[in-house]
Amino acid sequence: MLSKTPSMISKARIKWIKSLEIRKYRQQYKAFVAEGPKLVEELLPYSTPLCIVATQDWLNQNEQIKAAEIYAVNQEELKRISLLRTPQNVLTVMPIPDRKLDLSALQGRLVIALDGVQDPGNIGTILRTADWFGIKHVLCSEGTVDVYNPKCVQSCMGALARVEVHYCHLPEVLSKVQMPIYGTFLDGKDIYAEELHAEGIIVMGNEGNGISAQIAEMINRRLYVPNFPKGSLTTESLNVAVTTGIVCAEFRRRLQS
Fold first, then answer.
1. Is the pTM of this model over 0.85?
2. What per-residue confidence (pLDDT) applies to 4?
3. How far apart are CA 199 and CA 251, in angstroms?
């Protein structure tokens, strides 16, 4: 049986859920929206929802579910509440975890730092990449898009539950860590020929402008992902999420060789 009997959802509760599409309200209520059976099922083992809005069929198939509030709705009602164009049977409001950045926890680990990355889809892909390669910490500059943006939440799937994301003043953090700081540049050294370490911070920059000048000065390992064949005429640059995947794969491959 459900831990709480489903009830009808009020207009005030719908307004609250819809407000979470905006960052300032996510910060105010310390909550975000996650939608769809697959995403919700990935998040549930790690956190108890503040609110679940779902069809009766979904609730019947998930009778052990626990939440402070549970609402049963039909598809038309869900469509009015959902932040997606096509609702997927269940919507949850999840608490944003209250995590404190402990610099000592970064030592001995591979860490990703995002310097002004703006596209929610890129952030989502980078978080999934971090999750896949066992990278537990992602640092975000204050100018990086909110990872709890609905588009980011949907694209990163359950990675948000397993990867700790910290918003911080990135220059200050980088100045305090005692580990290699990597970054990708068009004038960097071939990543496949350079020595890579099991610990370090990999900085990825803004989609249009790359790594900011202030952060670039703090990077002591400048890398480059060469095209193939080397020196041939190709596209100007790689997407930041694609580059992150290539770089992380090469770091992890070295550990296994």
1. yes
2. 63
3. 9
